[in-house]
Amino acid sequence: xxxxxxxxxxxxxxxxxxxxxxxxxxxxxxxxxxxxxxxxxxxxxxxxxxxxxxxxxxxxxxxxxxxxxxxxxxxxxxxxxxxxxxx
Length: 87
Fold this sequence. Notes:
Blueprint: H1 7-20, H2 24-31, H3 35-47, H4 53-81
Helix pairs in contact: 1-2, 2-3
């Protein structure tokens, strides 16, 4: 039988996932906990009415990627306006 994980450790792992957007597998590995266990905790939170953290984090990463693309495109448009890039 495996030792029970302290609530304090569980809370820290879930906080990294929820607040910092850390991947669940990475948070589990960093803490020396099975990813399966962490996904079980996350599933339990969903059943208790909390929004799906994994979906929220995926959307945050996608949003960051879109902001990067927008930034690059905006920069290219500005260069074109200044005549630095061929049209």
